Amino acid sequence: MVVQAAKQRASSLLSYGGALVDQVAPPDTRAQIYDNVSSFTQTQPYLSTFLFLQLALSFLPLLLFTSFFLGTVILSALAALAFSAFWIGLALLVLVPTLFVTVSIATCVWVWAVGSYLTVMYTYDFLYSRGYVGKGAVQVKVKTPSTGKEYQANAGDGY
Hints:
Layout: H1 2-24, H2 27-43, H3 45-130, E1 139-143, E2 150-154
Antiparallel strand pairs: 1-2
Helix pairs in contact: 2-3
């Protein structure tokens, strides 16, 4: 019973693997590759055995180096990510209070500027309504440097 289930499972895995291989390399392509390799090994037996042994004996070290390389790249990427996250977090601990101070200062400057503008406008309107400011409100004596003559002018006349 257990043996029958194991055989059925193995058969299922083999059929799945065959279907996967068929998707990667269709059967006609595999047959053509097999024919090419077979004819090469018959025409060049020394070279084909040399290449086969090179591939067979170098496969494991190449596989180990590739796994080492991928592990190193993944580890260094994770370490770089952790390193960057640490320093970015530390920089945020400096940035947030700095932004709080600069926003507070900018708000105070804005309130001061608007308050000053409104005060000047209110004062000007107040003085203008009382006649202290405006055309003819202030008399000015002007002395020309070249002739020495004195003129009397109103401050709002454009002199």
